[in-house]
Design goal:
This protein is of the alpha+beta class. The chain is built from 4 helices and 9 strands, in the order H-H-E-E-E-E-H-H-E-E-E-E-E. The strands form 2 sheets. The chain has a 5-stranded antiparallel β-sheet with strand order 5-6-7-8-9, with no helix packed on it. Strands 1-2-3-4 form a 4-stranded antiparallel β-sheet, covered by helices on one side. It is globular.
Length: 164
């Protein structure tokens, strides 16, 4: 194996591992959809809005504590980049919301479970409260109606237990 090839392999591996993992702060306002996809990779989900705009979802999970939503205008240029696993967005969750409304607000959950006992569907996320404490967020949906019943947040204790 020649020396040039030996040096190139680690650089190629590094590039492969970091592709699609650029920081959302690298996205300039009015950047094109193509630039976003080059920097961030393919979105996990795309929502199309009635006005022709789209919202691209970039969860940093399942163990990440951030989910980014990139709003593109009908001209396919960036209008907004926001990190939605934050108190600002979590505080907007309320009883009566649909699964789709919750998903569009805070992104894909890291875990979805079912409770036969209470006939609920439970979604969870991990996030950083005020960039200081690691928290678990749980939302409980009534399975028959699909509406949000309850929102709970618990601080993740480093010893493995949880505190409210």
């Amino acid at each position: 194996m020649n020396a040039t090839f030996s040096r190139a392999v680690p650089l190629l591996l590094c590039a492969a591992f970091t592709a699609g993992c650029a920081s959302p702060s690298a996205i300039n306002p009015v950047a094109s959809a193509q630039v976003v996809e080059t920097l961030m990779g393919a979105p996990a989900n795309v929502w199309k809005n009635a006005d022709g705009s789209e919202v691209w979802e970039y969860p940093r999970g399942p163990f990440g504590v951030e989910t980014y939503m990139v709003t593109l205008g009908s001209d396919r240029a960036v209008r907004e980049v926001r990190q939605v696993l934050s108190e600002e967005y979590i505080s907007k969750l309320h009883a009566g919301m649909s699964r789709d409304e919750v998903r569009r607000l805070v992104g894909r959950p890291r875990y979805v479970g079912l409770s036969d006992h209470t006939d609920e569907e439970i979604w969870s996320w991990r996030y950083r409260e005020w960039k200081v404490r690691t928290m678990d967020l749980y939302v409980q949906f009534d399975r028959p109606t699909g509406t949000l019943k309850r929102v709970s947040k618990f601080q993740v204790d480093t010893s493995g237990s949880r505190h409210k």
